[in-house]
Amino acid sequence: MFYVVVAFLYVSILFYLLFGGADFGAGIIELFSRGSLKERTRLLTYQAIGPIWEANHMWLIIAIVILFVGFPEIYTFTSVYLHIPLSLLLVGIIARGTAFIFRHYDPVEDYFQKIYNAIFVYSSFMTPFFLGILAGTAISGRIDTEAQDFFSAYIQPWLGWFPVSVGLFTVVLCGFMAAVYLIGEANTVEDRDLFRQKAFRMNMLAVVSGALVFLVGELQGIRLFTELLSHPIGFIAMIAATLALPITWIMLRKKKVYWPRIMVGFQITMILLTLGASQHPDFIIFRNGAISLEGAAAGESTIFSLAMALLIGSLFILPALFYLIYSFQKQPVSVKKLN
């Protein structure tokens, strides 16, 4: 049952990156768009994620509940030593959701629309950025549990080049996913070509920012590549993600719609597998040691009850979620044009 819980934990994190990350990426694409493309991105974003955007946070909630119930030591450690980036992540989620609703349903179109738009795009950048910072800090070994002052204990660990580089890499990945997904949502050939160009640019930025993560890691003594070489699964996953790049480019150049989506999902899956396998069995690495999932797991009865709850709950939640997505894709959505 332990491995059932771990599988649900990783799947929930993966699905949050795939679905929630693409939603954040739509705001990132809008942030770095100009002119008519910004407006078209805004409208397509509402068409694509408007009906189901709230459901994406279900995966984050599941991951948090699993950590809280099944791995309380990890939950407590993260909540204490990473409470600032974690709080900023939650602020970004709340601000983005609030702005998304107000900018589409506010009955009065005035100056506040610009404020809603600004909050939406900047929080769309902020949320995956701090999600990446959390991940980067967790594997960097920068947390000092023996620190004697507030700055050293709660700010310095995540305010460094390596966590920031992972945060930027996460932002670019979200933008890349969104650009690829929005190709299929575009209503005209011109819009599809514009989002293909965005996808190519974001993909190149993802390659550069990914290389930057490895470079900064090496400079700061975080031997990511060395760790990958010692873990065959992680190394194979990294090779698979790399080989998927030219396939994605070919599919984009051939103006395919659904195959690039599949390849992007595969790449994100491989990247997460690379990260997880390279650090196995550790889940959080700090200056004085590490915490593994096995070592931080709750008692057997708790793990068993949690696993059964996840298995039974998935029988009801997953079919309903997929039907929700299917039903909204089949129904026309009324789009309100924003200034």
TrEMBL record:
One family from Pfam that matches here is Cyt_bd_oxida_II
Q: What organism, scientifically named, is this protein from?
A: Echinicola pacifica
Q: What is this protein called?
A: Cytochrome D ubiquinol oxidase subunit II
Q: Which GO terms describe its cellular component?
A: cytochrome complex; plasma membrane
> Which protein family is named in the record?
Belongs to the cytochrome ubiquinol oxidase subunit 2 family.
- Does the keyword Transmembrane helix belong to this entry? yes
Segments traversing the membrane: 6-32, 53-75, 81-103, 115-139, 159-183, 204-226, 232-252, 259-278, 303-326
Q: Does the keyword Cell cycle apply?
A: no
- What is the topology of this protein in the membrane according to its UniProt annotation? Multi-pass membrane protein
Superkingdom, natural source: Bacteria
- The residue range of the signal peptide is none
**Which keywords describe this protein according to UniProt?**
Cell membrane, Membrane, Transmembrane, Transmembrane helix
Which biological processes are named by the entry's GO terms? aerobic electron transport chain
Question: Per its UniProt record, what PANTHER family does this chain match?
Answer: CYTOCHROME BD2 SUBUNIT II
* InterPro entries reported in the protein's UniProt record: Cyt-d_oxidase_su2
- List, in alphabetical order, the Gene Ontology terms for molecular function in this entry: electron transfer activity; oxidoreductase activity, acting on diphenols and related substances as donors, oxygen as acceptor
Its localization reads: Cell membrane
